[in-house]
Amino acid sequence: xxxxxxxxxxxxYGELEVxxxxxxxxxxxxxxxxxxxNGAGKxxxxxxxxxxxxxxxxxxxxxxxxxxxxxREARSRIGVVPQxxxxxxDFTVRENLxxxxxxxxxxxxxxxxxxxxxxxxxxLTARETSRIQTLSGGMKRRLTLARALVNDPELxxxxxxxxxxxxxxxxxxxxxxxxxxxxxxxILLTTHFMDEAERLCHRVAxxxxxxxxxxxxxxxxxxxxxxxxxxxxxxxGVEEWAQAxxxxxxxxxxxxxxxxxYARDADAIVHQLEREPKLRYLHRHANxxxxxxxxxxxxxxx
Length: 302
Description:
By secondary structure, the protein is of the alpha/beta class. The protein has two domains: 4-217, Rossmann fold (3-Layer(aba) Sandwich), CATH 3.40.50.300; 227-285, Alpha-Beta Plaits. It has eleven helices and 14 strands. The protein has helices at residues 42-49, 71-75, 93-103, 108-122, 137-147, 167-182, 194-200, 218-225, 238-245, 267-273, 288-296, and strands spanning 4-13, 16-26, 31-35, 57-62, 65-67, 78-81, 155-159, 186-190, 203-208, 211-216, 229-235, 251-255, 258-263, 279-285. The strands form three sheets. Strands 6-7-8-3-9-10 form a six-stranded mixed sheet, with helices on both faces. A four-stranded antiparallel sheet has the order 2-1-4-5. The chain has a four-stranded antiparallel sheet with strand order 12-13-11-14, with helices on one face. Helix 4 (108-122) packs across helix 5. The longest helix has 16 residues, at 167-182. The radius of gyration is 22 Å and the shape is globular.
């Protein structure tokens, strides 16, 4: 049985349709990425799935329970890591875990038995008596993640878990999330970092303006939508270069000062650029960000 099934989900605010007929299915033990530009409906979808917002149409089944009718019961079996850390600054690291456990009706003795493993998971064993204000951003995120596991959830919602973290902290969080799926947990992840989704997610759904526009394994989406080779070209005269030599690629796109050349074989493009000392270039394999930008556009979203 799927841990989360969403069918025909709809939500509007006035005349603005935020979620328009969305279908999702999360199988047990997978990391599923929900991707989309700002305003695509990701956060509203999460709130609907958690039973925090009433849908206008469609159905949601979480861990076999209908939402929102039995949302409270379903939420007792899940973990949530919000966009913004909401740790209690008046408590220590250990106390934050203990108090949170009581929200799930766990006895103090039960939570105390879980604390050592949760602290080890978060890499905070040596900081269990520290106040929240003394922790770095990465430590707070790891503690928020560990806190979400206090009730041993089957399904974990993570809303942009690494936003604002430095690269080292991001890699630590990634390692912890891979550990969770290895342990059989199911994860629903929203993120603006396409490399994060490509590394962690077994499947992703790309949504835009409340509707799903693509779904699949990251590698499959890349193979389906993008040529395998990409050359990013930038520098003085790049527009003139693109007009003269863009035909060497299958297609070109320009964003700001960069021309993106997509090709099945980029050797001819690279050889030509080696004779252009004023231009710089990056030759790489296609990635999930290329798919995302092709399907949702390169214009800014507010």
